[in-house]
Amino acid sequence: MLSQRSDQFSISSCIKVLNEMEGVEEDLYLAALDLFQDPDRRETFISIRSDIRMPWLKGKCSSMS
Predict the structure, then answer these.
(1) Which of 13, 14, 23, 36 could serve as a FRET partner for 7 with CA atoms 20 to 30 Å apart?
(2) Which candidate, 3, 2, 8, 65, places its Cα nearest to that of 42?
(3) Residue 6: its pLDDT value, please?
(4) What number of other Cβ atoms are within 10 A of residue 14's Cβ?
(5) For the residues of 26-39, what is the DSSP string, one character each?
(6) Could you say which DSSP state residue 1 is in?
(7) pLDDT in tens, 31-47
């Protein structure tokens, strides 16, 4: 069960979702890759509604810089 959970929230799972999103500019994409180093942020990114992902991602990435 734990390995299934960690696979669901893996970096590659996050990148797959990120690649499917429209309108992600290069700077945001690269910042998101750094964000995905944090397991809690990966879980949040995968779990939130798809219409909330872009604003959440922009907010988190802008607060990192």
Answers:
(1) 23
(2) 8
(3) 66
(4) 19
(5) HHHHHHHHHHTTSH
(6) -
(7) 999 999 999 999 999 99
Q: Residues 37, 64: contact at Cβ < 8 Å?
A: no
Residue with tokens 């872009």: 54
Prediction pTM value: 0.87
The residue assigned the tokens 């069960």 is: 1
* Helix, strand, coil percentages in the chain from 3-state DSSP, rounded to 5: 80, 0, 20
User: Which H or E run includes 17?
Assistant: helix 11-20
In contact, 34 and 2? CB cutoff 8 Å? no
